[in-house]
Here is the input.
Amino acid sequence: MIEFIQQLVNGLSLGAIYALIALGYTMVYGIIKLINFAHGDVMMVGAYVGFFSITLFGTNILAAMLLAMLFCAIFGVIIEKVAYRPLRNSTRIAALITAIGVSLFLEYITIFILGPAQKVFPSSAFPITEYHIAGISILNKNIFVFISAVVLMLILQYIIKWTKTGKAMRAVSLDMEAAVLMGISVDKTISITFAIGSALAAAAGVMVGVYYNTINPLMGIIPGLKAFVAAVLGGIGIIPGAMVGGFVMGLLETMVSGYGNSLYRDAVAFGVLILILLIKPTGLFGKNTGEKV
Amino acid sequence: MKGKGNKFFVILVALLLMISLVAGCGGGTSEENPATDAEKIAVGINVELSGGVASYGSNARDGAVLAIEEINAAGGVLGMQLEPIVRDCKSTADEAMSVSAALAGENIVAQIGPLTSGDVQGSTPVMMENKIPLIAPAATAANVTVDDKTGETKAYIFRVCFIDPFQGTLMAQYAADELGAQNAAIYADTSSDYAKGLAEYFKKTFVEKGGTIIAEEGFVKDDRDFNATLTKIRSKNPDFIYVPGYYQEVAPLIKQARELGITAPIGGGDGWDSPDMVSVAGGDALNNAFFTNHYSSQDTDPKIVAFVEAFKAKYDKEPDAFAALGYDSVQLLVQGIKDANAADSVKIAEALAKITDFEGITGKMSIDEQHNPVKAGVIIEFKDGEQVVRTRIQP
Here is the structure.
């Protein structure tokens, strides 16, 4: 039982990070039907911004996170303007390939500027405290990751459900042309979507830095892929689906390593993707709607 | 038909050109031969000075050049001075091969390097063809000196480092005999042949010593979250955890293990040797962690102290294991030249194969019939973030 609770703690922390990244995927997909493969790399950029704000300006972890979110929000908008907007009316595959190009560009430009070696996230920014309760070790960083992820998700839910911007986002997602006719600025709404998604990724990046101590230019690839699976699992384009998908993925991986074989962990994660696509392609939260022709 | 005929003609011309080139080269060298051999012995240093593992190659070169300078200052070998010819193989096997071919044209008696097993593999055919001995400072894969298919020892390929399986054996001995471990868990990097080799031999030796392996788990390159598997290992309560792999993954792994409250000793191999271990995991987490290595610059052996001082005086940096192995490669070659009593590459190779009890910086070694040195390994312990030599184990 102790072991199970410990694995639950491990899984929820990992799941919180996946969920935050998955949200960005799902928001962008929901609005312009683009799998933004550069999303994991935006997370990496966020982690580096957090790293430099701590090492160069000596900020605390919350300020570092806010700075990284702000930076990446602007950065995400620029990516969208430069790389995706000119392709909005071309085929979806063109935009997808561009996204892969942006991903590789971000990875290797970071290697070019900062070098390929990993950087150690300063431990002074987040001193670790361990709590041992009845054989279960919980660290303050587990709590930090979990709580900040939940808070950010609640803020996101609020923005989408109860603000005008959120309403515009939902409208654009539902039918872009009709939204234009209703006087919604589609360009602005898409920019905001990218800004919010990228900011969430940046927050996840800083969390990864705190949680795993090291950051490197290729750190976004694997979590990006896992979060993509999480988004598909929950139903891509559906925000609560991404949250649930993220936590399910985190718990699933943890339980496979903990009770099965650690070597099958990634196989199970990607096996889930295949199963979902075969059985319920719209995801756990997806509604079966006929393809509009 | 016409096209085919043209092609044939082009190939014929190309072949003729090549033959004339080769003939020209041959003529040139035979004329120069007596003059250069009389005063100098050319030693090729074919190492990685750029590319992925540039730090390995440049440190080995520094060690090798230091050794050559020391030998020359002491009067050289057989009355002749050694002349290093340093070339960069750019961390690729192809380049290692062409560099070797170029060096062979410069009448080297032996080649030091390259460093990685793959690059040595690239250089090997050229060395075998020209019958020039190659001494690899740090190529640890078993098939570097032995042909995989025929099981034959490659006559001109030697090395001064121990091979992968040995490290696993060494750590198993240490865990069982010195730390008194009876139950061990293995948590290895399953995406690297190096780590899998270490794990396999650790298991073999540990079981032979009467121990039990209670868990075998794996991680892959670039993994960062080890909590789930560590929690599982924790519940089995092992006396010792063997984690062969590279520092990038091992450092966060050890940190997470300690955070989960695992206090058992943790061991690994030379892939742990990096300053990043301490900066990522922290000195506290690394206490009670041990790894096997070729040598340590912290060793108090007078021979090593003298080497470290000479190296620091010349290069103003700490010599790592690669520098020490580069240094030993040259010293082993010199021993070979002395034993052969001639600066002739075929005779040197024969002499190298017979060397016993050679005293190097990285330990006393004898070359066995597979051209692997039988030598001691060092067990290094982390103590509050410092590497401390625990013991030296002779196989």
